[in-house]
């Protein structure tokens, strides 16, 4: 009697006499069972029932056996016809594998407290009467965070979501709509509150000034980076071609020569994206106003989240809507649906109501964030984060939090 026959007898819990062989060879069908340990049990489908053995093992020692239903039999036959057979259930199948945490490796000294038994530390307030009371009491009276501080903590938690690589693009066909300012705010918040690195790419062919907004350190441009690709073998090598703000936000400047800037090709942009993704986690691309430029298609193809800079000014709001339509017509409807709209409340009486803009954009895009008007940002000079009003900083943190909600999704 073969070893396979012995195994089949063990599964059935019964013996088959040599004088009465089964009419057809038995077939083993693996039936995954979703139990705590996710064990695999086997069921034997035979042509005729096997006769019980004289000395069968106790019922408690026999493995669980259940009849095979017609649906399972048909599913098994289809899998075998497709060449799949019985797929194993184990560590290689994420749908069926649920690893159990290994806590037996960690030991604590007698004077140490395991994390599960440690008291929950209430975060200390930093502003308002709660912060004043906490300071006056010598940090002994902690009534917890205010609702505004709690909301800020939630936003920062989203912003710190781990991500391997994420590409953000700021866009509007209207000049002076605040694209570059929005890109600077995004990069500053990301560089300030995340541990990894954020970098900006000035892809504006019409003399972009993103590098000037961070404080230009040298005259290297994106053209110099492309001419020295063979030298960029590490983080420090890439840093030679970037301009860094006090927040650690880095920017690759566009070419100062308009002719060379307009000669920037889609393949060159894709090359820069590939190089930068190897050393930086979050990439922000600032575009120009000409959406017919061939580079725009390459930018959109590399984009994970689209940010539209808008305002309550009628012309800027209308062109922001037109920008979404142009992007959608080019086949990037998913970017429009996942877009985040940053609406600056422009001063003046002849403005589109912010409620009307929010209602219209929310029906088409993922999120809308209102940004207060900041006089220091109108001129387009050096971006000074510390000089911004508290409510403006808070609005930009909310904007980045809305963008960071896409960090957990699929990346390009």
Q: What is the first-to-last residue Cα distance?
A: 58 Å
Count the DSSP helices: 15
Give the biggest beta sheet.
Answer: 8 strands, mixed
Please trace the helix and strand order, writing H or E for each element.
HEEHHHEHEHHHEEHHEHEHHEHEH
Briefly summarize what is shown.
The chain is of the alpha/beta class.
Q: Could you outline the blueprint of secondary structure elements for this entry?
A:
Layout: H1 3-12, E1 27-32, E2 40-45, H2 70-81, H3 128-136, H4 147-159, E3 166-171, H5 179-193, E4 198-202, H6 210-214, H7 222-227, H8 235-239, E5 243-244, E6 250-252, H9 258-262, H10 266-277, E7 282-286, H11 294-301, E8 305-311, H12 314-329, H13 333-337, E9 340-344, H14 354-362, E10 367-371, H15 390-404
Parallel strand pairs: 3-7, 3-8, 4-6, 4-7, 8-9, 9-10
Antiparallel strand pairs: 1-2, 5-6
Helix pairs in contact: 4-15, 5-15, 10-11
Description:
The radius of gyration is 32 Å and the shape is globular. An 8-stranded mixed sheet has the order 5-6-4-7-3-8-9-10, with helices on both faces. Strands 1-2 form a two-stranded antiparallel ribbon. Helices cover 35% and strands 12% of the residues. The protein contains 15 helices and 10 strands. About 16% of the residues have low confidence. It has 3 domains: 103 residues, no CATH class; 40 residues, no CATH class; 240 residues, P-loop containing nucleotide triphosphate hydrolases (Rossmann fold, 3-Layer(aba) Sandwich). The two termini are 58 Å apart. α4 crosses α15, α5 packs across α15 and α10 packs parallel to α11. The protein has 412 residues and is of the alpha/beta class.
């Amino acid at each position: 009697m073969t070893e396979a026959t012995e195994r089949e007898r063990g599964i059935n819990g019964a013996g088959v006499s040599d004088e009465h062989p089964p009419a057809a060879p038995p077939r083993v069908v693996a039936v995954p069972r979703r139990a705590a340990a996710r064990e695999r049990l086997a069921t034997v489908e035979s042509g005729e029932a096997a006769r019980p053995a004289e000395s069968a093992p106790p019922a408690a020692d026999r493995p669980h056996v259940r009849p095979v239903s017609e649906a399972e039999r048909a599913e098994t036959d289809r899998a075998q016809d497709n060449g799949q057979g019985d797929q194993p259930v184990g560590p290689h199948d994420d749908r069926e594998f649920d690893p159990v945490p290994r806590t037996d490796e960690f030991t604590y000294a007698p004077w140490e407290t395991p994390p599960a038994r440690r008291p929950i530390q209430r975060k200390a307030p930093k502003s308002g009467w709660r912060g004043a009371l906490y300071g006056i009491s010598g940090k002994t009276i902690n009534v917890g965070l205010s609702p505004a501080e709690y909301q800020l903590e939630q936003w920062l938690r989203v912003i710190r979501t781990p991500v391997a690589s994420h590409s953000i693009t700021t866009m509007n066909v209207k000049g002076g709509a605040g694209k570059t300012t929005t890109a600077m705010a995004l990069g500053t918040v990301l560089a300030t509150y995340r541990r990894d690195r954020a970098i900006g790419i000035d892809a504006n062919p019409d003399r972009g000034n993103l590098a000037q907004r961070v404080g230009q350190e040298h005259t290297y441009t994106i053209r110099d980076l492309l001419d020295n690709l063979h030298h960029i073998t590490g983080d420090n090598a890439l840093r030679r071609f970037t301009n860094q703000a006090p927040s650690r936000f880095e920017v690759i400047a566009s070419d100062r020569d308009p002719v060379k800037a307009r000669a920037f090709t889609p393949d060159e942009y894709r090359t820069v994206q590939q190089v930068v993704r190897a050393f930086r986690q979050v990439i922000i691309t600032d575009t120009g106003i000409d959406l017919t430029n061939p580079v725009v298609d390459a930018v959109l193809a590399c984009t994970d989240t689209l940010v539209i800079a808008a305002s309550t000014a009628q012309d800027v709001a209308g062109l922001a809507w037109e920008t979404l339509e142009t992007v959608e017509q080019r086949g990037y409807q998913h970017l429009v649906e996942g877009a985040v709209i940053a609406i600056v409340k422009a001063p003046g009486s002849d403005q589109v109501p912010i409620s009307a803009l929010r209602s219209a954009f929310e029906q088409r895009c993922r999120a809308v964030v209102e940004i207060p008007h900041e006089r220091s940002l109108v001129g387009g000079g050096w971006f000074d984060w510390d000089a911004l009003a508290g409510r403006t900083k808070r609005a930009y943190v909310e904007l980045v939090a809305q963008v960071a909600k896409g960090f957990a999704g699929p990346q390009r």
